[in-house]
Amino acid sequence: MGEFRSPEEQITVDFTMHGEISVVCVAGEVDMTTSTSVGETLRTLLEYRPTALVLDLTETDYFGSGGLAILIDTVERTTRAGVGFAVASGRACVLRPLRVTKVDTVVRVYPDTDAALRALELALSARAAG
After folding, report:
1. Which carries the bigger pLDDT value, residue 124 or residue 94?
2. Within a domain: residue 46?
3. CA 5/CA 102 separation, integer angstroms
4. Is the pLDDT of residue 68 over 50?
5. Does residue 129 form part of some domain?
6. Which parts of the sequence belong to the STAS domain (predicted)?
7. How many domains does the chain have?
8. How far apart are CA 88 and CA 76, in angstroms?
């Protein structure tokens, strides 16, 4: 029999700052019951107007429709705010739903947080120079 875990035990959401780029790290399962905390964290951080935002899903074990909805919402919000946005994950459980739903065509996905940070920093430098 499977083990039942409450939504609070299924997910951990933390954030760090790398200069002016906010990184939201999500570990565990992102589904309809847990995606609310991820979305709230992303919306709150956007209120502080970081230059860019990375959603680190490198420790995410499950990524369902609730997570996809949060990604689409975040893409729309960051685009309106002029804030760079990227996802970090090389995990099949995250990449597969992104590919199947074609969400990977509207959000930049990198294999890890360092790659996402480098790409966003380059984009920010290019924007500042141009």
Report:
1. 94
2. yes
3. 30
4. yes
5. no
6. 11-120
7. 1
8. 18
